[in-house]
Here is the input.
Amino acid sequence: GMELEEGVPGGLEFCAEMMAETGGRVVMLSSAAVTRNAWSKEKQEELELVVDIPIVRLNPLGTLDSTRLAEERVRMIGADYTIVRPVGLRDTEGPKNWARGRPWISQGDVAVGRANREDVASVLIEAALAPEACNKTFEMLTLAGVNYPAPVEGLGSVFERLLTDDQRKTMGEDMGFGSADAGTPGEAVVRAQYSLTMQMLPGEVQEPTRLEMGRTYEQLDQGKVNREKGAAATAREVALANQGEARPKKTEK
Here is the structure.
């Protein structure tokens, strides 16, 4: 989706323009945490539990920034769209697995945790077909296990309760392109979402700032990792972040 040269649209633009012409909708798979490095210093300090974490601190290859900009390009084309931002992705099976379960949807870019890849795929399909998800951006994680199945009636009612991006901007939410007063209605909603999502963290130790890149919530519970809040990245973390896109995807978000 990158522009090949000035004035020449890339894949994102071609896709969105085609959808605008045909009346279709663009559904973009993005990522949680894309706006956090662009928040004001005050907001970052207040919501430090979702800012002082590996993926945001190291921002490998500037991926969060480029993805945030790509999102905005989709919004500005004029086509209908839905942007889905999952947290850290895990497979259903394998050495680092996370069971399928109920997709838990939020807004404000304050979600931290894990999302099952199959659940993410299901949410993308539902979002593409649900008119209630039109022109909305949201985060998702998976409440794992058989006691939290996906709703049998689908996610339409969940999508319906979400705010459109235009509504969020009108309410004064900082969408990652300029600071917003913490006292606006939009930022009040973000703080409420933050309070809720912090209760969805995996593991017993509810302190994601103590994680290092490449380490897990299970290792945090076992005392195998215990980073000090605000500590600089270790040489190991920097090396891991610089290895490319494949390795950082295992990092918790």
In short: Residues 1-8, 245-250 have pLDDT under 50 and may be disordered. DSSP finds ten helices and six strands in the chain.
